[in-house]
Structure formats: structure tokens, C-alpha cells
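Hi R.,

Here's the input for the magnesium ion complex you asked about:
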Amino acid sequence: MTVKITEVADVITLLPENIANQIAAGEVIQRPASAVKELLENAVDAGATEIQLIVNDAGKTLVQVIDNGCGMSETDARMCFERHATSKIKTIEDLFHIRTMGFRGEALASIAAVSQVELKTKRKEDAAGTYIEIENSVVLRQEPVAVPDGTSIAMKNLFFNIPARRNFLKSDAVEMRHIVEEFTRVGLAFPAIRFSLTANHQPLYLLEPGSLKQRMLQLWGNSYQNKLITIKEETDYLNIYGFAGKPETAKRTRGDQYFFVNRRYIKSPYLHHAILSAYQDLIPADSHPLYVLFLEIDPSQIDVNVHPAKQEIKFEDEKIIYAFVQAAVRHALAQFSITPSLDFDLDPAIQQLPAIQQPFTDDKRKEAEAGAIFRTFTQKHQAHFIEKHKMDPSVWKNFYEKPAPAPESASSPSERLEFPSPEIFSVFPLHNTYLIAQTANSFFLIHQQAAHERILYEKMKQAGKQNPIPSQRTLFPATLELSPADAAVMEEIIPELQWLGFLIEPFGNNTYIIQGVPGDITPNPDNSVIEILLEQYKHFNPDIKVSVKEKLIRSLARQHAVKGGTKLSENEMYKLVQDLFRCETPAFAPDGKPAYIEFSKDQLEAMFGR
Ligand code: ADP
Ligand code: MG
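And here is the predicted structure with magnesium ion in place:
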């Protein structure tokens, strides 16, 4: 047997820098929302007091953050895109005193490796700012530019150079949810900063500077005004403050649970469990209370460097933190049960209303009072018993009951699921204007016109996404005579009308002939459809910058939606509700007004003092 020996060349080569960057970027930038997080945090680190977030197509084509922070020098503007370029740490010791959100110097390098970036930045002390265009880690343009103080970074066409990863992105609805989630987290962590979020040219959020509670109400609505319990405990070792929902706010689906350590949002099933256990016996076993809690701890006691997105954290002693968090929440719950007025910023008049307060039953209260933790905190009316003892952390361990084990491995982050559409059991009409749709644990009060507008709007958007909407030729073309002013408007919108399935031809002298209409949308065409479209187009709120097509689609949806006062058949009602919950954004009409309000059974029972 002969052995054939082939000469084998050396096989190791160094990766070109842009490929190395792309690979490294995979850890930091997984989806548009990752860029949102990094860019918002950079703006916060830059000391901004006002931060605008602008996204198009759920961030797939554009994520832009504009801040009024410190800006960058010309050299720094170029440097910031280099890997490991950071102004936030210089030595390894600094790693143990991190007070900024960023420090790894990877975010901008990663973003520049996987998208097309435009940076505009200017420091207060500089006369001119700097403009830089970079794509695929290569600088295409750099020049001086006149811009306001601060920084604007636009990330365009994420993964334009990595189709495989682009294809991995989820639907716009899902990506948008991730973006809103990141926006919410940063917004909660920094209530003193003004934030806005604009999506596809429509304003979604405007968060005015204020207290944490005001920020929470801005995000989730004033209905939480009287449903939050203040949590605040201070010790030499660590502090905690924030709000937890009263037991009635607990939901089956995990929703609004936010835990921050030194203002950094942290995913910790272990500490979530600590909070849940504080609610023991106050809420159903598989439900989750709302909370927004901030833990403050000496940075040397934690390691945030364990995860590229810094969402996991290692504590020097996790068990102490567990016991502390659990005790603080229990303490607040116990106090609340005895003196409901503790929540100091309640309007006293509102506080008197029986529907607002849902005191614990006496049994529950006695149980809470009997707990060791409650006694510890309130002994001799010392609200901050712990503070009195310069506590050595080791004492803590014996001080509290042994914490129960976490439900799942403490390190596995729990991904949030998409909410399935609710299962509707029955639908009833109300005043021929609203529908009541009942589910197992709640009911939806639906505004039939708003709901129908939403349905038609999404149907047209979907239909017109890639191809023009098919047009049906009309047997008897209609003639439309317009005023010169309206004719000018008509000229402006004819191309989009055609895209939407209206075949319109100019006939001279401000006259137009309608040859075809989108049969699916406008089954019974007459001139009034176009006339109303023109009218609504002209009067569209000019503050809202949306495309011509968007305006037309909204007007069409409004025109063709069933109006209030229209009696619907049983079938029509069911179909409307079903179609609504198949929408990507069922909760709102296209103009942003609510399409439905959900009432939970618990809410009803609370209203009746049950
Ligand atoms: P890190 O935040 O970890 O330092 P980044 O890649 O996010 O790394 O940013 C690199 C550097 O660019 C930052 O350290 C900071 O000096 C500068 N920088 C980034 N964004 C801004 C901004 N919005 N305003 C001012 N400087 C910024
Ligand atoms: Mg950063």
C-alpha cells in the first residue's frame, strides 16, 4: 500500500479588519433595538438633557439618535468608530468604578461595521462641527459642518452588507416592540431627561422630564396613579428605591418588570424571584406584579462586564441582595396595608374614594405583620432599622430566612414572548358605537369606527407594500372638475393615488377623469371618494410629517370605516373583533386614538370593592 503525500500549504490567515469587526459586532448589535440601546446610552453618557430617537421601518432602514450632550472634537469623531475606542475608562482599575453606561468602546465600531452611518457632532467650544460618513467600517467622507451643539448619529440600512443577518430580523411589529422596550428602559432609568420617539415620521412618545413616578405614568397611563407603592430603603451597603404595583396590578403575562442596578437595566430571574416571593399569598401563584426598582451599590461590589450588552451582572454576594430586595418589598407592602396614605403624592380627595384603595383583608395584614422581616423593619417605629447598625454584610445571611431557590437557573435570561391575540368568547354591541368583547379574564371595550379604521389601514398598507394595489376599471368613467387650487393638490398626489389603485387622468382645465378604482377598498366608487380624499389631505395636521401615501391611506381608512351609530350584524361584529386582533397595532386607530380599552376582571372586582 502506498501513501500519497500531498504538500499542504499553511492555512492560517489574519481576517481583514472589516470582517473581524463584523464578527465582533454580532455580539453587540443583534437587531435594531441593540443599536437603539447603545446610541441612547451614549447620549446619556454625553450628559444630554434632551434625546430624540427616530426610527423608520422598525429601525431596519433608520435608527437615529440626536442629543444635546457634550459633542465630540474632530479627532474624537473619527476615533470613536475604532474598536476599543472609549473615553470612559483608561486603566483596569477604572473597570471597578464604572459610573457610565458604556465603557467597552465597542458599540460604534460595531454599528459602523454592519450599517451605513452618518455622524454629525459639535462641542460647545468649537466653531464648526464634524460630519462623517462611514460604511462597512470605511470612512467615505469627513468634512466640517454647521450643526447645533451635541451629536446626531444615524444608522442606516442595518446589515446591508450581511444579507444572512438581515434576513434573520423579525417582522416590523416584533422589532418595533424591542425598540420600544429599550426606549422604555432608558426612559425609566433617566426620568430627568426629555426623550422622544418618532417612528415612520409619527410621534409615538414624548417623555417630559419629571419624577420616576411621573415617568411611569407617562409610559403606562394615569390609571396607575393610585396603584403604586413606594419602596425606599437605605443602608450603608446598598440602597433600593422605586415603585411596585399594588397586588391588584399583577398580571398573568409577564409585562412591566424593571430592575436596575446603578441605573443599568438588568435581567435577573433570581432577583425577580425575590420580588415575587415578597408578594407571596397576596397575588395568585402564577401572576407577576409590576415593578420598577433601582438598586444602588458600590460599583466595586458588582461586575457588569460579564455580558457584551451588560444585561447580566455578578454581585459579590447575591444572597444578600436577594434578602435585601425581598425585605424591602415586603416592608413596603406591609406598610401599605396598614397605612394606605403612605403613598405621599396621592391626591387626598382621590384617596378617599373607596374604589381607589383595596386594603388587604385583616387576615392578610396580620400575617404580614407577624413576619420576621416586617418586625425587623418596623421595630420601635424605626423605619430604617438596618441603617442603625453599621451592618457587616455577613450578618445579613443569618438575619433573614434563607432565600428560596430561584425557579430557573439564575443566569438564563427569560425572553419575552409575543402576545397571542386574545381568545374572544362573545361580543355585544353598545350604543351601536362600541363593542364589548369578552375574554376569560377581561373584556375589551372597542370603538367600532377606530377599530375598523385600523383594520382598513393595515390592509391597504399591506396590499401596497411591494406592488401597486390593483385597479378595477369603472364602466362609466366619472369626471371631476376642481378649483385651480385643488387641481394643484391633485397633481401632487396623482402618482400615489395611482399606486393606491385609482386610475386618474388629467383632461385639461382642472378636470380629471376617474377611469378605475381599487375594487377591494372602494367597491362603490363615485366622485365623492376623491373629493373627500383631497379635502382630508389638505387638512391633514401639518405637524405630523408623513408621506403622501400614508396620508391618503389614512383618509381612505377613515372614509370607509363603519361610523358610530351603525348597527352591525352579529357576523360583522365578530369579524371586526377578529380582524382587529390580527392587526400589528390593534390598540390604536391610525391617528393614534385608542381602538380599545381592556378591563381586567380584577379591575372590575376592585371597583366593586371585592
Ligand atoms: P463606549 O460607550 O463603551 O465608550 P462607544 O463605541 O459606544 O463606546 O462610544 C465610543 C466613544 O465615542 C465614547 O466613549 C464617547 O467618548 C464617544 N461618543 C459616543 N457617542 C457619543 C455622543 N452621543 N456624544 C458624545 N460622545 C460620544
Ligand atoms: Mg457606548
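One thing worth noting: Residues 318-338 form the longest helix (21 residues).

Cheers,
M.
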